[in-house]
Amino acid sequence: MFKKLFALLCLVGMVSTAQAETFRLIVPQNPGGGTDVWARIVAGELEKKLPGDTIIVENIPGARDIPGFNKFHNELRYDPNVIMVSNGGNAEDFLLSKVDYNYNDYALLGLQNLTIVVGKRNDSNPENGVRFAAGSGQNPDTMAITMLVCGPQKSFDAYLKCFNDKITYVPGMKGGERRLSYMRGELNVTRESPAAYKKHPSKVPENVTWFTHGILDLKTGAIVNDRNFKDLSFAEVYKKRWGVAPSGDFYDAYVVLKNYRDVLQKALWVDKKNPNRAKLENALRAMVNDPVSRKALIADSGDYDWIIGERDGARVLDILGKQTSAKNLKNLVWWNTQAYGQKPVYKPELAKQ
Question: What is the largest CA-CA distance in the chain?
Fold first, then answer.
């Protein structure tokens, strides 16, 4: 009898061990970056909802955070235990750079619907001149700053002239250098994710929150106020400054770039045929609905909603796709070329209207 019981226990143990899986969460940047920190918090909380399974974070860095996502597209997505993490720089490059990856080829497991926070120093009025660091994912911030400083304009040429006159867009500064320069007053405007904003600019005595970019409303496709920063969403701040709501071709192009960058800056992807997809979606929902896990997520990123699952994920991509008109893409290519001296690529295959 004892031998039979022992054999049964061994069999149960073998089955349990065989079912345990190790998932790889791929982050396309070096350890310590904002996306990496977020991914490690998510991995720890998500693992609790996958009993017996393990989640490890694997960093695949490279120029502009592109190589890691390209590797996922070309190789790793066919592994049922691989989850890809996207960031805002990836989203900008998807629109304007030659890359292998394409969000429409994957299943969106879930994302945290975030924004970016822009701060300014109270000892230096940016309307007299902005000093701001360039970087991956930061071009939408500069477009918003240009509109706030320069006011309602009728043409891209008018915005470009004002940009050249009033805004210094400093290239080549890494995150730590940018934060130190802002603290010392060498830069008078900065931007961060909500999590990094709490850790860095908010600790600078001279810092005040200038605006956030607002949140994409999944139901309407409109940009709504950010409840974490009352009365400080871009449209509110702009209207208070200029007396009218932002509008026009420049604003429309900004909205496309901002929405891709903000909505997809912290998103999780798998292959559409991944057999673990339903399991992972259910674990994500359990994580988000767990008060302890949600507290950990809010402590890092703020109180921002999650979008999870096939239906809502498809809705997100549909909203973004409909905004991606040929006109908006061409205008973004022109602006990035003329204002920033970059070499963007016009991708007509992304144009939806």
Answer: 88
Residue that is written with structure tokens 């991944």 in the block: 274
DSSP state at residue 102: -
The encoded tokens of residue 326 equal 């040929």
Residue 108 main-chain phi, psi, to 5 deg: -85, 110
Beta strands 22-27 and 82-86, pairing class: parallel
Query: 244 lies in which domain range?
Result: 117-261+325-350
**Digit-coded pLDDT (tens) for 152-192:** 988 999 999 999 999 999 988 888 899 999 999 999 999 99
User: Which residues have C-beta within 8 Å of that of residue 6, sequence separation ≥ 6?
Assistant: none
Q: Using an 8 Å Cβ cutoff, are 228 and 62 in contact?
A: no
Which long-range contacts link 228-231 to residues 24+ away (Cβ below 8 Å)?
228/194, 228/302, 228/303, 228/304, 229/117
Q: Which two tokens stand for residue 87?
A: 């960031």
- Taking the alpha carbons at both ends of the chain, their separation in whole angstroms is 73
Model confidence, pTM: 0.91
| Residue 55, beta-bridge partner list | 23
Is the alpha carbon torsion for 61, 62, 66, 72 positive or negative? negative
Block residue for tokens 């890494």: 174
pLDDT tens track for 263-307: 999 999 999 999 999 999 999 999 999 999 999 999 888 899 999
Domain CATH number, residue 97: 3.40.190.150
At position 164, the amino acid (one-letter code) is N
The amino acid sitting at 116 is I
110 and 128 part of one domain: no
Integer Cα distance of 340 and 74 in angstroms:
30
- Coil, strand, or helix at residue 40? helix
53 vs 19: CA distance, rounded Å: 8
324, 87 Cβ separation under 8 angstroms: no
- Report strand pairing: 54-59 vs 267-271: unpaired
**Residue 213 contacts residue 116 (beta carbons within 8 Å):** yes
Residues 6+ apart with CB under 8 A from 157: none
- Does residue 122 share a domain with residue 108? no
